[in-house]
């Protein structure tokens, strides 16, 4: 009898435990599905603002970089393959653009400088979600469990737009982007704003006046789930399309493991390092885009650019708010743990690797000379002013190991 009684007690415990767990799961479910509000003063959930993934410790993690044109992605992409302070982050051969980024034989980075444009030139969120897993299986010749961590850079829409205009003016087109959506390539479906090979020499007014110019609201479109509007073929009224795209882009940005803001390199680096528990050997650089910065824009043009990029301006405001929520949260946690002061510029910097990265810029890069000159002058300044603070370096290293 006592044996049965004991067993019955265990049953009771199990039942109570089961009910309690169900209740908890239900509560979590309710909390997660509470209607989201999208106004700018919206509260972000803890999950939106506090994310940490130890990419070194878990082979399932694969970073997927959504590289939006003219957001500083080339430099950032090089940082990822060349300057992460981890054991053999990537194997790079000099003269080769792409590096072999594997950890225990498993690829941990899906990006231009590792896997190449495996899902198409500047593939967007929609294309990557349709393509990455299949591609990874192919490249690794292995079907395994992976956890994809999406990352991207978002930039001030005016600066980005002017930069794309200047780039187009010099002859760039990205017409080879496949624009895959729901299994179909829309590359040849979309009308071009120019006749002939490219749009070389285009004026600003002509550029923004083309209503189907893919530069317009590029960031929103490239971060949204385009399936929601039936891809590039939508019959919905414009206001509805706009609304769906913007809300989708915001949602996807919130779900990203990390995104940086091109205007805030120091903060972006810090956020990246804490999010993924890694350090960079070369600090993020603010590379002045002299051409775009110097362009003098009339107020009429400014107004028109705003109108043509309304979604991107709204998205950027939202991104900034979310970014600084994440940054401040992670900064607070970090300093509570380490007792260190925020000295990002003076922490680990390795000029050798920076130089290597800069020498790597090929001749097909846009604006390459301006960038090189810019960064090399910065490098000289740094050599003069920067001494690695050994005390901080040691402390950071120890912290990393025990964290
Ligand atoms: C990349 O490195 C891994 C591990 O060292 C190796 O197995 C693989 O063959 C390499 N791939 C290429 C394309 O070099
Ligand atoms: C994108 O939206 C479509 C349509 O609602 C949905 O079926 C699909 O799962 C979404 N894609 C992703 C990756 O969430
Ligand atoms: C910088 O990186 C290079 C190559 O990895 C290494 O040989 C050198 O010791 C590093 N310098 C510093 C100051 O850490
Ligand atoms: C970039 O521009 C800013 C503002 O014009 C200037 O203060 C900074 O020194 C420039 N950076 C470089 C590397 O030239």
UniProtKB/TrEMBL annotation:
<dbReference type="GO" id="GO:0017095">
    <property type="term" value="F:heparan sulfate 6-sulfotransferase activity"/>
</dbReference>
<comment type="similarity">
    <text>Belongs to the sulfotransferase 6 family.</text>
</comment>
<feature type="transmembrane region" description="Helical">
    <location>
        <begin position="12"/>
        <end position="31"/>
    </location>
</feature>
<dbReference type="InterPro" id="IPR005331">
    <property type="entry name" value="Sulfotransferase"/>
</dbReference>
<keyword id="KW-1133">Transmembrane helix</keyword>
<dbReference type="GO" id="GO:0016020">
    <property type="term" value="C:membrane"/>
</dbReference>
<dbReference type="InterPro" id="IPR027417">
    <property type="entry name" value="P-loop_NTPase"/>
</dbReference>
<keyword id="KW-0325">Glycoprotein</keyword>
<dbReference type="InterPro" id="IPR010635">
    <property type="entry name" value="Heparan_SO4-6-sulfoTrfase"/>
</dbReference>
<keyword id="KW-0735">Signal-anchor</keyword>
<keyword id="KW-0472">Membrane</keyword>
<comment type="function">
    <text>6-O-sulfation enzyme which catalyzes the transfer of sulfate from 3'-phosphoadenosine 5'-phosphosulfate (PAPS) to position 6 of the N-sulfoglucosamine residue (GlcNS) of heparan sulfate.</text>
</comment>
<keyword id="KW-0808">Transferase</keyword>
<dbReference type="Pfam" id="PF03567">
    <property type="entry name" value="Sulfotransfer_2"/>
</dbReference>
<keyword id="KW-0812">Transmembrane</keyword>
<protein>
    <recommendedName>
        <fullName>Heparan-sulfate 6-O-sulfotransferase</fullName>
        <ecNumber>2.8.2.-</ecNumber>
    </recommendedName>
</protein>
């Amino acid at each position: 009898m006592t044996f049965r009684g004991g067993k019955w007690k265990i049953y009771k415990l199990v039942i109570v435990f089961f009910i309690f767990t169900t209740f908890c799961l239900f509560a979590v479910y309710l909390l997660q599905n509470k209607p989201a509000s999208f106004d700018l003063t919206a509260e972000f959930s803890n999950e939106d603002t506090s994310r940490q993934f130890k990419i070194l410790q878990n082979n399932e993690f694969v970073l997927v970089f959504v590289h939006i044109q003219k957001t500083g992605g080339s430099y950032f992409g090089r940082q990822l393959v060349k300057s992460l302070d981890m054991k053999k982050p990537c194997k790079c051969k000099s003269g080769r653009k792409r590096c072999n980024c594997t950890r225990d034989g498993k690829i941990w980075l899906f990006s231009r400088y590792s896997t190449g444009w495996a899902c198409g030139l500047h593939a967007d969120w929609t294309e990557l979600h349709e393509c990455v897993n299949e591609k990874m299986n192919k490249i690794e010749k292995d079907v395994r469990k992976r956890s994809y961590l999406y990352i991207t850079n978002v930039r001030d829409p005016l600066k980005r737009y002017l930069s794309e205009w200047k780039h187009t003016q010099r002859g760039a087109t990205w017409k080879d982007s496949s624009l895959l959506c729901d299994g179909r390539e829309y590359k040849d479906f979309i009308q071009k704003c120019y006749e002939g090979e490219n749009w070389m020499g285009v004026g600003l007014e002509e550029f923004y006046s083309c209503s189907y110019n893919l530069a317009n609201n590029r960031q929103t479109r490239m971060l949204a789930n385009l399936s929601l509007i039936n891809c590039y073929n939508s019959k919905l009224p414009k206001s509805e399309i706009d609304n769906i795209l913007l809300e989708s882009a915001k949602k996807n940005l919130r779900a990203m493991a990390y995104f940086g803001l091109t205007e805030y390199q120091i903060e972006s680096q810090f956020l990246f390092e804490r999010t993924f528990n890694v350090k960079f050997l070369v600090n993020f650089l603010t590379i002045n885009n002299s051409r775009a910065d110097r362009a003098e824009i009339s107020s009429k043009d400014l107004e028109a650019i705003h109108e043509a990029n309304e979604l991107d301006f709204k998205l950027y405001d939202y991104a900034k708010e979310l970014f600084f929520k994440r940054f401040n949260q992670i900064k607070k946690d970090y300093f509570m743990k380490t007792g260190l002061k925020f000295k990002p510029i003076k922490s680990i910097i390795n000029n050798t690797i920076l130089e290597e990265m800069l020498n790597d810029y090929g001749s097909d890069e846009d604006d390459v000379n301006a960038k090189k000159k810019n960064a090399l002058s910065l490098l000289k300044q740094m050599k003069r002013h920067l001494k690695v603070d050994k005390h901080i370096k040691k402390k950071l290293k120890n912290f990393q190991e025990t964290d």
